[in-house]
UniProtKB/TrEMBL annotation:
<dbReference type="InterPro" id="IPR000277">
    <property type="entry name" value="Cys/Met-Metab_PyrdxlP-dep_enz"/>
</dbReference>
<keyword id="KW-0663">Pyridoxal phosphate</keyword>
<dbReference type="GO" id="GO:0008483">
    <property type="term" value="F:transaminase activity"/>
</dbReference>
<keyword id="KW-0032">Aminotransferase</keyword>
<dbReference type="InterPro" id="IPR015424">
    <property type="entry name" value="PyrdxlP-dep_Trfase"/>
</dbReference>
<keyword id="KW-0808">Transferase</keyword>
<protein>
    <submittedName>
        <fullName>Aminotransferase class I/II-fold pyridoxal phosphate-dependent enzyme</fullName>
    </submittedName>
</protein>
<dbReference type="InterPro" id="IPR015421">
    <property type="entry name" value="PyrdxlP-dep_Trfase_major"/>
</dbReference>
<dbReference type="Pfam" id="PF01053">
    <property type="entry name" value="Cys_Met_Meta_PP"/>
</dbReference>
<dbReference type="InterPro" id="IPR015422">
    <property type="entry name" value="PyrdxlP-dep_Trfase_small"/>
</dbReference>
<comment type="similarity">
    <text>Belongs to the trans-sulfuration enzymes family.</text>
</comment>
<feature type="region of interest" description="Disordered">
    <location>
        <begin position="380"/>
        <end position="404"/>
    </location>
</feature>
Length: 404
């Protein structure tokens, strides 16, 4: 029987099969996990030639691996699969999203292009890495409309996130790519995932993921990845080899496995997030809801009361930073994910002190709403008990959901 050519396969099929095409021929069903740090070879002359070639080109080694800091077959499967999902030529995996961003900045700086143009908000640590100049880069923060004007001869990169962390602000990626001209546009696609958005199709040369989030999907693996063309990937591989920010093979294994359920998870979590976003928008205890037109499983909202009381009040939802897991997490960006960003810069990025960011998981929507509703009222009902004031909005308490 003929198999469908890879180019016509849908995302759902790629998610399950990409990076695993050779398994049947190997007599395997699950991907093998190769934990070797080094590999035997009696032919030192051949190894010397292969290492010289890697040093000169950064092309992926052919033949058996040499050492785990150069490459790893399990990680390579994840890279291949993610590239297929993002529609890029290839991908290079790292120990974390920040290691991936670091390698990208180093690659541009090594080419003499140390100026970066970026749009706020970005994830707090990305903002910090750029603002602090820790890697010798210089950043110009702009509104999307100011990108073209901010570009200089030594600009090596334009960096954006859409939907952005934590406000979920959306950008017109096609228009942005146009404004960038010949300067590569890097889009952090962590929140949307390739299920909802493939930035490369809109003109982004570089797509960044914190793989820790939706790609892994279960809150048990830390990783990062850059999906890009082979030319840029070669520079990234050379930097990864020299600096050592490699993804552990077990993480590569878990990420490959995570990809197979990515479309199902993202769609189910997004459907629940949309329900919760609507309820929050109708709730008088909430002053503003941020939910992307694109959809997705992230909801951000500003509360009339004290956001810290909501964090303290949740019981089913986990009060923790991070996102993209099968369970729902909530955090206060001003205290955690964006704490390291200066207060004024947080404000410029639209990050209010009353903003909460929620990553919606796979739980039942009614159970989640019950928990949120209770947490939103926690402090106020305590006050009401004392003062006998009416419930805000005059609403009766939500019924406890039926237990299934
Ligand atoms: C250490 S803070 C943040 C982790 C993650 N990037 C987030 O936005 O939640």
């Amino acid at each position: 029987m003929e198999t469908t050519p890879a180019t016509t396969r849908s995302l759902a099929t790629e998610a399950v099969h990409a990076g695993r095409e050779d398994l049947a021929a190997l007599g395997l069903h699950a991907a093998p996990l190769d934990l070797s740090t080094t590999y035997p070879s009696h032919d030192s002359r051949a190894e010397a030639a292969r290492l010289d070639e890697f040093a000169a080109t950064g092309a992926q080694l052919t033949g058996p691996p040499v050492y785990a800091r150069l490459d790893n077959p399990t990680v390579a499967r994840f890279e291949q699969a993610l590239a297929r999902l993002e529609g890029t030529e290839t991908a290079v995996a790292f120990a974390s999203g920040m290691a991936a961003l670091t390698a990208t900045l180093l690659a541009r700086t090594a080419a003499g292009l140390r100026h970066v143009v970026a749009v706020r908000p970005l994830y707090g640590c990305s903002d910090h890495l750029l603002s602090s100049g820790l890697l010798g880069t210089e950043v110009t923060w702009v509104d999307p409309a100011g990108i073209a004007e901010a570009i200089r001869p030594e600009t090596g990169l334009v960096i954006v996130e859409s939907p952005a962390n934590p406000t979920l602000a959306e950008l017109d990626l096609r228009a942005l790519a146009h404004s960038c001209g010949t300067v590569p546009l890097m889009v952090d696609n962590t929140f949307a995932t390739p299920v909802l958005q493939r930035p490369h199709e809109s003109g982004a040369r570089i797509v960044l993921h914190s793989a820790t989030k939706y790609l892994g999907g279960h809150g048990d693996v830390l990783g990062g990845v850059i999906a890009c063309d082979e030319e840029f990937a070669r520079q990234l591989r050379q930097i990864r080899f020299a600096t050592g920010g490699v993804l552990h093979p077990l993480a590569g294994y878990l990420l490959l496995r995570g990809l197979s359920t990515l479309p199902v998870r993202v769609r189910a979590q997004s459907a629940t997030a949309a329900v919760l976003a609507r309820r929050l928008a109708d709730d008088p205890r909430v002053t503003r809801v941020h939910y992307p037109k694109l959809g997705g499983a992230m909801v951000a909202f500003e509360v009339a009361g004290d956001p810290h009381e909501v964090i303290a009040g949740v019981r089913l939802i986990t009060p923790a930073v991070s996102l993209g897991s099968v369970d729902t997490l909530i955090q206060h960006p001003g205290s955690i994910s964006h704490r390291i960003v200066a207060e004024d810069d947080r404000r410029t990025g639209g990050i209010s002190d009353r903003l909460l960011r929620m990553s919606v998981g796979l739980e039942d929507a009614e159970d989640l709403w019950y928990d949120l509703d209770t947490a939103l009222s926690a402090r106020r009902s305590a006050t009401r008990d004392l003062e006998e004031t009416p419930r805000p909005g005059g609403r009766s308490p939500a019924p406890e959901p039926a237990r299934r």
